[in-house]
Design goal:
- The chain is α/β, with parallel strands linked by helices.
- It has a domain of about 220 residues: Rossmann fold (3-Layer(aba) Sandwich).
- Helix content is about 30%, strand content about 10%.
- The chain is built from nine helices and ten strands.
- Strand 1 and strand 2 form a beta hairpin.
- The longest helix is centred in the first third of the chain and has 13 residues.
Length: about 325
């Protein structure tokens, strides 16, 4: 996803929200002994066929509201991974019509809006020249969340012209950012939506049967995230390839519960069927594991609990934030 020769040295610091509460140094503890999970949650299947079935299952699971976090991939490969699926244009090209990233955000937003009662959505970018594979940047200079998906889309359009696509690609920083937010919320249930254009970076120097540092860090982050009430949905846009994403979905060992769902946005949206039907199929595929994942966090006793060993992550400001408009500061608090 990112450039082959990208290098970066973004330092790790602590996460600070706009109300000046510092998400900084925290004591590191060994993970608490884990309860034995019902086998049906160790590998959660794709269970539903209609959006109504998913919505009903969410309600039956007791999920009345969730907190959303959005992560957007700004690696350089977005310039060419739309060669087949997006008529050769950059997947981040901004014009009169929505690009694949905007389409995915809009459809998920329409579906999950009813479950995000405070309408505050922390949004982050990764893989650009400021973050590479070591960090994330917030959509707002003071790290406050976006106010609904319309604000997400608006800020996305303002940010895209100001940044430089780069790499390499790792999902570890955005997953660690999400774990920090979950921990500081007191263990509230969150859904992390990552929209990305392909694989985690795998160098030509990585031998057969070995993992690149980006692959290893991503897998470790997914495993650690399963100790938190956090579901991860990775939406793939562009041409792929997607084989490693499917491995992440099905075959990562040692997780407390199956916390990761991969959805091939391009495959669904390229079908020759009614647009509304495609949008529904995409939403169903993205959300179908959420009811069982939420039930797993209840059974494991990790919902509503601080784990005490999440990363302490701070986002950078958005690229060229002096150019971006900055409305009056909106404080948001963890309840």
């Amino acid at each position: 996803m990112g450039g082959k020769n990208s290098r970066e040295t973004t330092p790790d610091t602590s996460y600070q929200r706009s109300n000046s509460v510092t998400y900084a140094a925290r004591h590191q503890h060994a993970p608490a002994p884990q309860r034995r999970l019902d086998r049906r949650y160790s590998r959660i299947g794709d269970n539903y066929e209609t959006l109504e079935q998913v919505t009903s299952a969410l309600a039956q699971a007791g999920l009345e509201s969730s907190n959303l976090i959005v992560g957007i991939d700004f690696t350089k490969s977005n310039e060419w991974t739309g060669m087949r699926s997006y008529n050769g244009r950059s997947l981040h090209s901004v014009g009169a019509l929505q690009n694949p990233y905007e389409q995915a955000i809009s459809i998920i937003g329409q579906t999950l809006a009813a479950f995000d009662e405070d309408n505050l959505i922390p949004c982050f970018g990764f893989g650009d020249a400021s973050t590479h594979d070591h960090g994330v940047f917030s959509f707002y200079p003071d790290s406050r969340p976006c106010q609904g998906f319309e604000d997400v889309l608006s800020r996305y359009r303002e940010i895209v012209p100001q940044l430089k696509l780069s790499g390499p690609t790792s999902f570890a920083p955005i997953i660690e950012m999400a774990m920090t937010i979950v921990e500081e919320s007191g263990g509230q249930y969150h859904v992390l939506l990552i929209i990305a254009d392909g694989q985690v970076t795998r160098s030509v120097d990585t031998g057969s049967g070995q993992l690149s540092s980006q692959e290893r860090n991503t897998i470790e982050a997914i495993v650690k995230a399963s100790n938190h009430p956090l579901s991860i949905i990775l939406v793939g846009v562009g041409d792929g390839p997607w084989d490693l994403m499917k491995e992440f979905d099905d075959n990562i060992p040692a997780r407390t519960f199956d916390n990761f769902q991969f959805v091939n946005f391009t495959d669904i949206m390229s079908k020759n069927v009614d647009p509304l039907r495609k949008q529904t199929e995409f939403a169903v595929n993205a959300l179908m594991e959420i009811p069982s994942q939420y039930q797993a966090t209840l059974q494991l006793g990790i919902l509503g609990a601080r784990r005490g060993y999440s990363p302490a992550t701070v986002p950078l400001p958005p690229p060229s934030n002096d150019i971006l408009r900055s409305p009056s500061v909106h404080q948001y608090h963890v309840n």
